[in-house]
Amino acid sequence: MPRDEFQFIDRLRQRTPFRPPVRLGIGDDAAVLDHPAGTVEVVTTDLLMEGVDFLWPQTSAALIGRKSLAVNLSDLAAMAARPTAAFVSLALPRQRGRQFADELMDGLLALADEFEVTLAGGDTNSWDGPLVVSVTVLGTPSRNQPVLRSGAKPGDWIFVTGACGGSLAGRHLTFTPRLTEAARLTELVALHAMIDISDGLAADLHHILDESGVGAVLNAAAIPIHADVGPLTDGRSRLDHALGDGEDFELLFTVAVEDGPRLLSAWDLATPLSQIGTITSDRRCRMYCVDGSVVDLPPLGWSHPLGG
Length: 308
Hints:
By secondary structure, the protein is an alpha+beta fold. Helices cover 28% and strands 28% of the residues.
């Protein structure tokens, strides 16, 4: 019996063959579908649940709606794709009434307008349980070629946008999906592999390493730690929070070693870029610490337990 969501997903992958027009199915940030005209489309979906992904009434209905779309747009950014259409299904708590539903959609539609995404359909229902939101988004990849998790190569430089850690202070509800940054990256360099940081920097790096069949060495001193990692009261270091908190929704990606310096010199967006390590061939994931020691880096981060 799988103990967590990743083991469950791996079992599903083993049982689910790809059939045309599906080029890539379970295992990346989005699926890839071929069209007869030679173009491809990417499709992603996320299910958000009250009590797990957000709390109510601590979180406004508008922010819940915004996050429900934003996490999907972040998945498309990780594939270097431009979003086109969204489909939204809601299980609404009936006791909260019409105003709650309207405010939720206000938040979702405001973000859709910002990135020119069309709400093209979905479904609604009501019940006596908590709020559940499912969003599916379609997109078009840059140059008709999505960036996958499986393309990292030994020698690649590992980069991350922005900074990591402390997202649960509120940033997980208000982050801006890195669609603009992803589009600019594809203009400047050839991206080998990319993922958005939802489970945690270390956990999501391991997703790239597993899919690419490679290892990595990170430089602890180079990992950008967000200011939201405030005074520590839980016994964990600031670095541990940056590596494992998750829901940063930054882009983690690799490029060829010869493209790394050129990318840093040409980068012209406000969102910072940091080179945090290098891809290796030995399948291990290690980190050089500030004190000079080298430690193994496990996939720190979040996974949904499935129970016994």
